Amino acid sequence: MAKSLLAVFGATGNQGNSTANSVLDDPELSKRYAVRAVSRDVNNPKMQHLKSKGAELAQADLDDPSSLPAALKGVEYLFFITTTQYQGNSREVETRQAEAICEAAVKEGVKYIIFSSMSHPYKISNGKLKNVEHFDDKAEIEEYIRSLPVKSAFFAPGSFMQNFTSHLKPRPSPANDGTYVMASIIKPDTKLPLTDITDTGKWTGAILAEPEKYEGKFFAAAEGLYTLSEACEIMSKVLGKTIKYQQLPDEVFKGFLPPGLKEQLYEMWVLSRDYGYYGPDMKELVGWAKEQAKGHLTTLEEWLVREKYSVE
């Protein structure tokens, strides 16, 4: 039986690389799918690693529509993600990227698109949150893809565990007593869906294993729901240090955010605190998606150990 050709755009990024590796490493999926790994730089070591596993490599750039038809020629299944623009204009750039690849995909006869989507803060908050553009635009792209004459499914990752190495990293306590503090505006009992983003392929692989079953489905992809207080307890256990969560007043928290992204990042946290990262049905959505995952999902404790996590 001839294999279906799967094109994975962004094959050097966390989500694309995880998807490509999951298919190549899976005994069943590797029999059903040939992988075309697509990136702006085919010489990237991650691309060469995929090639060593049997992937075909192709060069393309979502910002260069002329490069897309060749990368999509003969493709039946497509995974892609648009790139959040942290310097601004995210909606404009991501929408342009998505329309370019989708138009080319439809022309080339792609049958099924898996898109890395997100929740829709503007809708969830009934229009109160107007600035979480890097979430809203992906939700709007999802709506656009659903209108196309192709089958589709949507992977929407929770808050990355990798964020604990950047803006959620605990800092030494101002008391200078050897303890550490993690700070944000969400309440101590606010549940946050956490995911190890390198687990992406466990969900996209599940979709590719049963594409008809999951057509039109939205995967609120997280290993579980954690409060930041619980995350601090797990970190304390793993590191043998005292780490506590502190809820900051909104204006104090805003003062720590980069000027160009202040409202965007602030409202992203308001979404989780006041409405739920995926909205009011978050618990059910995350529970369903977790049951569909193909393979064991990395827990926060396992992630901390694997990454040799440190607060030093």
Automatic annotation (TrEMBL):
- Tell me yes or no: is Cell cycle among this UniProt entry's keywords: no
User: Which InterPro entries is this protein grouped with?
Assistant: NAD(P)-bd_dom_sf, NmrA-like, NmrA-like_oxidored
> One GO cellular component from the entry?
nucleus
Q: Where is the NmrA-like domain?
A: 3-304
UniProt entry keywords in alphabetical sequence: NADP
Does the record bear NADP in its keywords? Answer: yes
Recorded hits in SUPFAM superfamilies, A to Z, give:
NAD(P)-binding Rossmann-fold domains
In Pfam terms, one family for this protein is: NmrA
* Gene3D superfamilies registered for this protein in UniProt: NAD(P)-binding Rossmann-like Domain (3.40.50.720), UDP-galactose 4-epimerase, domain 1 (3.90.25.10)
Indicate the family of this protein.
Belongs to the NmrA-type oxidoreductase family.
Q: What is this protein called?
A: NAD(P)-binding protein
